[in-house]
Design a protein that fits this description.
Length: 308
Amino acid sequence: MGKRVDSLIYSISEGLELIKRYSNLNDVEENLVGNFVNRKEDNKKSLDEIDNMFNNKMYGYGKGSVFYFLDNKVVGKINIVLEVVKELGTIYIHCLDVLEGLDNQEVIIKELLDYAIAIAKDHKPNEILLGERNKNRLKVLEKFDLYSEYKSLRMYLEDRSKKENCFDLIPLSTENKLEYLSVYNDSFSDMPHGSYICIDEVKEYIKNSNEENYYFMVSINGINIGFMNCEIQNRQGLFDIGLCKDHRGKGYGKCLLETAIDFLNRKNALKINLIVIETNSIAYDMYKKRGFKEESIISYWTKIKWAY
């Protein structure tokens, strides 16, 4: 894919500009992006909402949101997650989308991918991961020797009876925000598809804490050993959990899982869900053993092979 990347970047620099980053768009082009995004939406997004979608920290404030222009309209897009590359060494490429009914869809997908990989390589990551859900696009990717290797899954629980003792929950607050930050990053930064947050994000968690969003540290004998975050919307519960490195391998994972289940039971959630990456085998196996079942596939993932 490297030679195609070089030729595409050269042609863009010469002024063809078929592909542009959101950060470089003018007002007219931003409106064309809005038309593309809203083409299938029942509830149309405003230009401000669309700006928030692409001009944010996750995508490097527009530098990782890429659009393909053809015949005075947007015909394709792709996003590159640049937020965590410094901390985790990983770049995620996802949200590929191409206008329906085009004869040259494969060309557009190939060129968007080449451009996205070029942007990713610029940041010198340890790995580049490509996520895709659409089965037709997955078949196109296979033509480029990009085969899915594993999945991210949404799972649900039927047997909600209590199986283990539960940990104490310490709600996130202004007073303990730095401790929460440390616990979260220690718990999650080394996981497959891990995450890393900064203090501004923790402050947003505090601001957004309500009857739909809950953020906790989990504690045993007064020691914070991990975190638990829960979201409840329309009585549908979704949780995320993690253990600090020093507290793994001690059997705490089952109790932490039970703590999340018990919390959502007490909140009268009608359904309990989680999202897991297959390659996080310890967690995945624990969830299956507890009785969680696969509900849907969030995305298929491919490791991009490249050389600097």
